[in-house]
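Project standup — Tuesday

K.O.: blocked on the structure for the chain from last sprint. Re-posting the sequence here as requested.
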Amino acid sequence: MFKINHEEAKGGFELIAKGDYEVTVHNYELKKAESSGNNRIVVDYEIRSDVNQPHQGQKILFDNFTVTEKAMWRLQAISKAAQFPNGMDFKSYKEWADTLVGKHLVVTVGHREHNGKTYPEVTGFKESTAGAPQGSGPITVNEDDVPF
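H.V.: unblocked you, prediction finished:
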């Protein structure tokens, strides 16, 4: 088992400082806005641990993309930062979000206040300057490695 050691208690994650961060789009959820009923895509990011930067591994949660003509610029901005080709077509917002998951980009983080607490808020998007994480190379699988 394990033994409780209060010296190892770190108090959780600290507030993500304002600035630019290399992130990976972690996941999304399709929702309806409670007040307006508009469709919304809620995106979560993870600050990349393979890039030397503060807050590695922390998540930036609940970036709301409201699907309206007035707010479409945000979907266009993140799509450009994720390096979707100009003119790329999607059949649905779900297909767009599925394609966005796993993409690497830079987000600009600001802060917002809500109910007396401060939260990180994504205020802008840029193309990644770090590129995709480097893997260990191709994996070779032989017939002897497969159980069937």
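K.O.: great, moving the ticket to review. The two ends are 38 Å apart (CA to CA). The chain has a mean pLDDT of 90.
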